[in-house]
Amino acid sequence: RVQAWYANAGILRSETPSSPTASYGAYKGSNVIVVQVEAFMNFMIGQKIGGQEITPHFNQLMKDSLYMPNYYHQTGQGRTSDADFSSQSSLHPLPTGSVFTRYPDHTYNVLPQILKDNGYQTAAFHAYESSFWNRYTVYKAFGYDQFYSKKDFTLDEPLGWSLGDKSFLHQSINKMKINQEHAGSAPFYSFLITLSSHHPYTLPEQVQELNVGEFQGTIFGNYLQAVHYVDEALGQMVEQLKQDGLWDRSILYIYGDHDNSIPDKTYYEKFLGRSLNELDMEQIMNQVPLLIHVPDSKIKGMDLRPGGQLDMAPSLLHLLGIPSQEFAMMGNDLFHSNPRFVVLRSGAFTDGTILYMPSADGIFEHGVCYDLATRQPTDVERARAGYTKAKQQLDYSDKTIEYDLIRKWTPAP
Ligand code: GP9
User: Fold this and answer.
1) Which of 99, 118, 329, 361 is 20 to 30 A away from residue 162, measured at CA?
2) pTM tops 0.80, yes or no
3) Contact, 346 vs 358, CB < 8 A?
4) Is RNA-binding there in the keyword field (predicted)?
């Protein structure tokens, strides 16, 4: 009934192709490794500072992968937990607070449970206190067989809040390998959350490898150092996956969770060497990179169409050949949905031709609409239909969560 309710309102978009497409089910039975990277933003991908690449390993990986620079985080006040929730459930986070702490016992159609029902072993990895963001409770409810938190890792690389990402990723892969050996031929779903690039980004000097020039000693310079470190950790992870024979049997899905909480425009103007308008800043603060590597590297290149965190679950289900129609999901299938529609928690939205930003008073006409081709403000009326649709989508998502509609409206077996 939830799906029918969405469909009546024109919301249901995580459709399964009715006729075969080359990518549907092309990676059936593959392992799936998802890495949610702390404060990893798109504006610094492919950029250099003082002649040095900031993300050399990610840039290298892009050559054999699908890269989406117009992928948006859709988080609200629940930050990292919101990115996790939206990616796994294909629903929006709440307007206030975190779903993880407010409604942990409600029912959601989440990727770990769906994959578990399809014969996968499922595990979440995050080297911090298991109670943070109420993960211990939520991950049980989400169907993870295992949740490896700080206590399950050897603290052999103390860094920032906890264990450094290099050791975290290394130890996590070791655990996946052991689990798979024990599980015979069952594929696994692993969800990893990194931590070293967390605000305020002050990593010790011996870990700082970039010459950030004029940004030395600033929070922005520290941010670049932190993401450079994480990039190296990702590079080492890929090497280990290759050495351990997991690379050719796994889909790798890497994305950033949210922005870096550094809103000061002057940093970005200096860094990018140009003046930035309101649209530029909206995209800088809301776009996180998405990289998908498939086992035979056959899906690759740059997809400039918009996407967002709600799209993860339907898109991975597409590649695995698991129909998503029966689930209450609102995201796009990145391998099928066309055109795409991406709604941010603020009520901003884009369809790839315009981007609308609401005003603080919520009055439609007071918002701004940008034409993405000219990158200049355009007639706000162009956004009217999308505005109504975006508002409705957020409202339906909120009601689904608050009133526990998936549980209430799912017929008993
Ligand atoms: C801590 C980490 C940080 O476990 O997920 O969360 P954040 O403060 O970025 O929401």
Assistant:
1) 99
2) yes
3) yes
4) no
